[in-house]
Design a protein that fits this description.
By secondary structure, the protein is an all-alpha fold. It contains seven helices and no strands.
């Protein structure tokens, strides 16, 4: 599995949220490898965006900037992985069968908007509301992935989507609370 193939799969899904997910129904190799690469790439990009924003716009020390890099990278890496696992298990409760290897691609691709736009808020603090609003586009991608790949009956997909989003938010919240303590990140309320 080379990076070019991962990029092609990622781009075909982003180009067409309704039909792009069909690429995961074809034998494309190891889906876990694809999902893992996407998670690592997104996590590193998010970490670099936070690092740059802390150094450039907040005039903080390099030490704090690198702690933000670690915090952001690990938060997204673990959040995407744990959410993929939880959503895969949740699909069975909604009379579907979404294998973990497919969920490991679906969740990071759908969440890529949230990961990147929320990390951009470190660089463009004045556009926070707009960036968070734009990150909601990922919900559309997640919906179409669930409709096409989850095996969940169509009338149950909205409930499955809502519970999945709540689980993802809870995972992010818990990881942020733990990682803030580990990385000694200042919390501004």
């Amino acid at each position: 599995m080379n990076n070019h193939m991962v990029f092609n799969i990622f781009s075909s899904i982003l180009k067409s949220p309704r039909t792009g997910w069909e690429v995961l129904d074809k034998p494309i190799g190891e889906s876990k490898s694809i999902g893992g690469r996407i998670i690592i790439l997104l996590s590193i990009i998010a970490g670099l965006l936070s690092l740059g924003g802390i150094v450039v716009h907040h005039n903080e020390s390099a030490n704090l900037a690198f702690r933000y890099f670690g915090f952001t990278s690990i938060k997204w890496m673990l959040s995407l992985y744990f959410a993929s696992y939880a959503i895969s298990k949740l699909s069975k409760g909604f009379k579907g069968n979404l294998p973990f290897d497919k969920t490991l691609v679906i969740v990071p691709v759908s969440a890529s908007f949230l990961v990147l736009f929320s990390s951009l808020t470190y660089l463009i603090a004045t556009a926070q509301v707009i960036l968070y609003f734009l990150s909601a586009v990922g919900v559309v991608y997640l919906y179409y992935a669930f409709v096409g790949l989850s095996g969940v009956p169509k009338e149950r997909v909205p409930g499955f989507l809502l519970i999945s989003l709540l689980i993802f938010a809870l995972i992010i919240f818990i990881l942020e609370m733990v990682l803030v303590i580990i990385f000694s990140i200042p919390v501004h309320l």
